[in-house]
Design brief:
Layout lengths: L1 H22 L2 E7 L17 H9 L1 E3 L2 E2 L4 H10 L3 H4 L29 H7 L3 E7 L17 E5 L21 E3 L2 E2 L8 H16 L6 E6 L11 H5 L9 H15 L21 H34 L6 E7 L12 H10 L17 H8 L12 H4 L3 E4 L8 E3 L3 E2 L3 H9 L7 E2 L2 E2 L9 H4 L13 E5 L2 E6 L2 E5 L10 E4 L15 H17 L11 H45 L1
Parallel strand pairs: 1-8, 1-9, 2-11, 3-12, 4-5, 4-8
Antiparallel strand pairs: 2-10, 5-6, 6-7, 9-10, 13-14, 15-16, 16-17, 17-18
């Protein structure tokens, strides 16, 4: 009887644990790549994103949400809730100056002194999986399997072709696709957005019946260069962009105002857009097709999100699932074609013919002018600390008891997501240690009080929140933003804006509020000192640095390998001649 009682108690505990697990929501974290602020329909865009729009109506849109200005640093903060200057990703490998290599927290990968939110969710009973872009390193201690994910299919690098296993630029000699910790090849019918969704569904299916809630992280490559999409999605936008980028930028601003995402009278800078009407008809057609491909790629990704949602509804899991969507930074405005070495590499590896754009073996970008429309009504784009580079669309939907179809305009940032995930799961943050080792504490705040309507903001208006990446600097404090961008997008000088009334950063207020201007510079200095932020070289340009690092990581290994083969050949030749001479002498 004693053992029977113990068995009944064990069953009771197990049943209780199962019931508790069922109460905790499933979590789907969706990250798009290089989407501008107004690329989603619910944020003012004309591209077809009905599934993301539906999530926005079901939940809350954050109109003042910030990430870092490039891929890997954002992803490092997303996974850890720790500032990138403290988690190992002070700069990403592709843009780091050579002088910073190896400095503390400038390793270009996650450090061992941080714990991933996936670790904490897995430890609490969640089934964890990732499908898509990782970009946080693929050392043994840095694979997703080592960072808390039970199942993993990743593209480990900054990007890749969307149809084939090959690099998209001269950054590395090959691209790493890793399946459950092992290098793998791709199927013949591979298309990144479709394949990653297939994997996510596969992992979720594998968890059914386990009694565990799931955490599914899906990191799409859309719309990172090369911009590619199935032709059926691209052709939907034929003629959509015939009026050019300036008109599109203005239309998106008007729609964002209509939706309540920005103030009615907020100004908008023109940015450095070319004169559409000065283009030849041939050039207009080519530029139109570029943007059609971009829209098609976003549309295709949204379609895949819809396929995931449909599966969750069919399997009865949708109503207990929370969705979180964001982009990792603003739209990509740099142009690899503008650099001679990049142009030569692209021309030798891809087609850029208008009739092939978006397809397998073709290479396309949107360039700075369309990127200016993509981030409308904001200023600058990827790599820069203007709002267009770091303010992105952000949606939370499906939180039980939350407000629906609401817009929050208070300042939030990517460091808030990890605490939000833990709060959803009922998991405590670390107390400064994990598995007996010290780890950095999370710095963000859970957004659940905002989503639930208990408060309008989680960051006090008098709190300074500073930022630096690749020499672009910012400080947020209440309604103000202090900003410094390096050349060529900036003048390397401080500027002050009222970010509530002027999200487009058009009116500099430094002379109107000199005390605020000075005190926020002091706030930045304190942040830089506390986080060991390294000053950038005076001549630093992130796009040029990409080319420099490409030389060291792509061209130099090839040169050295060729030299090695040449020296080996010379050595073999010399040995052969000496051997022949000795044989001749013996004969």
């Amino acid at each position: 009887m004693k053992y029977f009682a113990l068995l009944l108690a064990a069953i009771s505990i197990s049943t209780s644990a199962f019931a508790e697990a069922q109460k905790r929501p499933n979590i789907v974290l969706i990250v798009a790549d290089d989407w501008g602020f107004s690329d989603v329909g619910a944020f003012g865009g004309e591209m077809s994103t009905p599934n993301l729009d539906a999530l926005a109506k079901q939940g809350m849109r954050f109109a003042n949400f910030h990430v870092t200005a490039s891929c890997a640093p954002t992803r490092s903060v997303l996974m850890t809730g720790v500032d990138h200057h403290r988690n190992g990703m002070g700069n990403m490998p592709e843009t780091i100056p050579r002088a910073h290599l190896g400095k503390p927290n400038y390793h270009g990968v996650l450090g061992t002194h941080v714990v991933s939110v996936a670790n904490l969710l897995r430890d609490s009973g969640y089934a964890t999986s990732i499908a898509g872009k990782w970009h946080l390193g693929h050392e043994d201690y840095n694979t997703p399997l080592a960072r808390g994910f039970e199942h993993s299919f990743i593209q480990a690098d900054s990007g890749s072709d969307n149809y084939e296993k090959r690099p998209y630029a001269t950054l590395k000699e090959h691209v790493n696709f890793i399946d459950e910790g092992k290098e793998t090849d791709l199927p013949d019918d591979f298309y990144s957005s479709t394949f990653y969704t297939n994997k996510a569904i596969e992992y979720i299916k594998g968890n059914q019946g386990s009694g565990k809630p799931f955490f599914s992280y899906i990191a799409y490559q859309a719309n990172h260069i090369p911009v590619q999409a199935p032709k059926a999605f691209i052709d939907k936008y034929k003629g959509k962009y015939k009026d050019g980028w300036t008109v599109l930028r203005q239309k998106r601003r008007e729609k964002a105002i209509e939706l309540g995402l920005i103030p009615k009278d907020s100004p908008m800078l023109p940015m450095a857009q070319g004169d559409w009407n000065a283009l030849s008809e041939q050039d207009k057609a080519y530029q139109e097709r570029r943007m059609e491909v971009y829209a098609g790629m976003a549309d295709a990704m949204d379609h895949e999100v819809g396929r995931l949602i449909a599966y969750l509804k069919e399997s009865g899991q949708y109503d207990n699932t929370v969705f979180i969507f964001l982009s990792d930074n603003g739209a990509e405005g740099s142009d690899p074609f503008a650099v001679k070495a990049g142009k030569l590499w692209i021309e030798s590896n891809y087609s850029t013919d208008i009739d092939r754009l978006g397809g397998k073996g073709a290479y396309s970008i949107i360039g700075p002018s369309w990127a200016a429309a993509s981030v409308s009504p904001l200023n600058t784009y990827k790599f820069w600390a203007g709002e267009g580079g770091i303010r992105v669309p952000f949606i939370i939907a499906g939180v039980p008891g939350s407000q629906q179809n609401k817009i929050n305009t208070s300042y939030t940032n990517v460091a808030d997501i990890a605490p939000t995930l833990l709060a959803l799961a009922g998991v405590k943050q670390t107390d400064g240690s994990y598995q007996g080792k010290p780890v950095e504490p999370m710095i963000g705040q859970s957004l659940l009080p905002v989503v639930g309507g208990q408060t309008e903001r989680v960051h006090p208006a008098d709190k300074a929140i500073a930022y630096e990446l690749s020499g672009t600097l910012a400080v947020y404090k209440g309604e103000f933003k202090l900003l410094k961008n390096m050349k060529p997008m900036g003048d390397n000088q401080w500027h002050l804006f009222n970010i509530d009334s002027d999200p487009g950063e058009a009116v500099d207020l430094q002379t109107k509020f000199p005390e605020v201007f000075k005190s926020m510079q002091d706030d930045y200095a304190a942040y830089a000192k506390a986080n060991n932020v390294l000053a950038m070289p005076d001549d630093y340009d992130p796009i040029e640095q990409v080319q420099i690092n490409a030389f060291y990581n792509y061209y130099l290994p090839k040169i050295l390998r060729n030299i090695s083969w040449i020296l080996l050949g010379i050595g073999v030749l010399i040995f052969g001649i000496r051997y022949w001479r000795r044989r001749k002498h013996v004969d």
